[in-house]
């Protein structure tokens, strides 16, 4: 808290200064006096303070009165209160330039009688300042106790805001760091900024967590003290809220980990716990797993979280974003297929259709999406999302969103291969192509895979491989020469496609 002071106007009413005269700078008589000092040396630059009343006889600069205008300028720069001078003994006349500068800066120059000792002036002024400070300190403690009592008695942040608004006789509102209004008083206050609006940051653990706005043109010392105490109390309230949110986030995160891990929790336990933590058991859930080697992942998570929030609001559901190590898990809610018939538009909702165009703008970030399921079976969707991500990456598929529905048959192929020895058959069909690629630095196998995947389209294959279609044609011709394969034969195409998929899924 800044030291309290008294105005020059109040100061000049003291008996000890009844014979003092203001000879210039009268427009600055509302300046606050917070300190008193005596000038003994000519160079006072760097020692001057805001609110300082400087007493001097000008003895130290008596041989160079031209330094007086410079002294006034330095006082003005320091936002000092005034210059009180005894000119008769060493100066006699004061320079005109000094008086003009005093008027320009609205910095009062006070002429003191010779017969008043400095000690009398400093004692009288400091007594007034100390009394004022003591009074403000007592009032500050009263305000702090009043506001903290409201918090300790759990009367709510609205009661605190109402008291602060009453003390300041003005409208106030508190916003969080995103700009959302937390509380306002009066309750119908329009939180719009005007030329009179002032604001102060509210910090918690040295981090700005909100701002206090006050609709008032000017505040006196007592009102500024009220603002400081209000900031302390609002900081305590925001700290309490932050702690509560972090605790809830931790509990929610543990619950999500339990769901994803497939722990043997009863259906009823999941329903009950989920309802407390924002997981509606009456809607469908699907899991998306995000992987990234991009430096933009933090920005991506902010953007996708906002997208999910907006889309969930439209559906009147609540989705969640959860961090798990270096991955992010999206828990996406949508209306169940047996939802209220009045809201049939929700039945066709597909998160894949929302996320796919969004993901096109993010390089180096991939997303695997599991199927829809109930809350208590969410582990299944999570495993599907992980498989979709793994298989999609291995197959070098171009989309950045891999859905389990698209790769389910490939997942079944992997499972089936555990019980059937496919290696010899695959080696017989495509082993020579693999060997040719290794020896010649070619990509015949990937080319054949994409060629078969696109129904034999040279153009689409070229797009997938980022090469010219003539290069694709050359590779296909080379494959035909090496394999003696008829790519117009549907059965042969199926056999080679099956073998290449098996190879790509099984290779390290």
UniProtKB/TrEMBL annotation:
InterPro entries membership: CdaR-like_regulators (IPR051448), CdaR_GGDEF (IPR041522), PucR_C-HTH_dom (IPR025736), PucR_C-HTH_sf (IPR042070), PucR_dom (IPR012914)
UniProt domain CdaR GGDEF-like: residue ranges: 269-390
Database matches in Pfam families: GGDEF_2, HTH_30, PucR
Domain PucR C-terminal helix-turn-helix: 444-497
Domain Purine catabolism PurC-like: 10-129
Family: Belongs to the CdaR family.
Protein name per the record: PucR family transcriptional regulator
UniProt organism field: Cytobacillus solani
């Amino acid at each position: 808290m800044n030291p309290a002071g008294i105005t020059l106007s109040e100061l000049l009413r003291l008996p000890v200064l009844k014979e003092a005269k203001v000879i210039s700078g009268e427009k600055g008589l509302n300046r606050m006096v917070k300190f008193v000092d005596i000038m003994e040396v000519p160079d006072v630059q760097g020692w001057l303070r805001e609110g300082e009343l400087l007493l001097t006889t000008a003895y130290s600069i008596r041989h160079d009165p031209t330094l007086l205008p410079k002294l006034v300028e330095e006082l003005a720069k320091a936002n000092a209160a005034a210059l009180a001078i005894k000119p008769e003994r060493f100066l006699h006349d004061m320079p005109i330039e000094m008086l003009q500068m005093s008027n320009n800066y609205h910095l009062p120059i006070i002429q003191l009688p010779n017969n008043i000792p400095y000690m009398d002036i400093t004692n009288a002024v400091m007594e007034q300042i100390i009394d004022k400070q003591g009074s403000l300190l007592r009032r500050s403690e009263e305000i702090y106790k009043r506001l903290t009592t409201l918090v300790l008695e759990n009367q709510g942040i609205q009661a605190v805001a109402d008291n602060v608004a009453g003390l300041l006789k003005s409208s106030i509102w508190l916003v969080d760091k995103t700009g959302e209004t937390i509380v306002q008083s009066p309750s119908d206050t329009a939180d719009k900024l005007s030329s009179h609006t002032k604001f102060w940051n509210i910090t918690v653990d040295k981090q700005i967590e909100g701002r206090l706005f006050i609709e008032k043109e000017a505040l006196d010392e007592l009102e500024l003290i009220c603002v400081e105490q209000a900031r302390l109390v609002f900081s305590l309230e925001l700290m309490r809220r932050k702690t509560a949110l972090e605790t809830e986030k931790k509990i929610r995160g543990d619950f999500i980990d339990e769901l994803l891990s497939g722990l043997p929790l009863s259906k009823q336990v999941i329903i009950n716990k989920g309802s407390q933590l924002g997981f509606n058991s009456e809607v469908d859930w699907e899991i998306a797993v995000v992987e990234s080697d991009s430096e933009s992942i933090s920005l991506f998570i902010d953007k996708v979280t906002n997208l999910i929030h907006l889309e969930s609001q439209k559906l009147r559901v609540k989705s969640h974003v959860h961090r798990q190590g270096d991955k992010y898990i999206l828990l996406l809610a949508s209306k169940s297929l047996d939802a209220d018939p009045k809201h049939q538009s929700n039945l066709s909702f597909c998160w894949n259709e929302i996320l796919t165009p969004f993901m096109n703008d993010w390089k180096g970030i991939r997303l695997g999406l599991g199927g829809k399921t109930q809350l208590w079976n969410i582990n299944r969707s999570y495993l599907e999302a992980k498989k979709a991500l793994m298989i999609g990456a291995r197959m070098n598929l171009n989309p950045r969103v891999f859905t389990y529905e698209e790769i389910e048959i490939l997942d079944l192929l992997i499972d089936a291969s555990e019980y059937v020895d496919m290696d010899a058959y695959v080696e017989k069909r495509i082993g020579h192509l693999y060997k040719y690629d290794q020896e010649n630095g070619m990509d015949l196998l990937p080319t054949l895979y994409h060629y078969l995947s696109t129904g034999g389209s040279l153009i689409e294959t070229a797009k997938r491989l980022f090469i010219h279609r003539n290069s694709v044609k050359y590779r296909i011709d080379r494959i035909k020469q090496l394999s003696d394969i008829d790519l117009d034969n549907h059965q042969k195409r199926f056999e080679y496609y099956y073998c290449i998929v098996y190879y790509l899924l099984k290779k390290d």
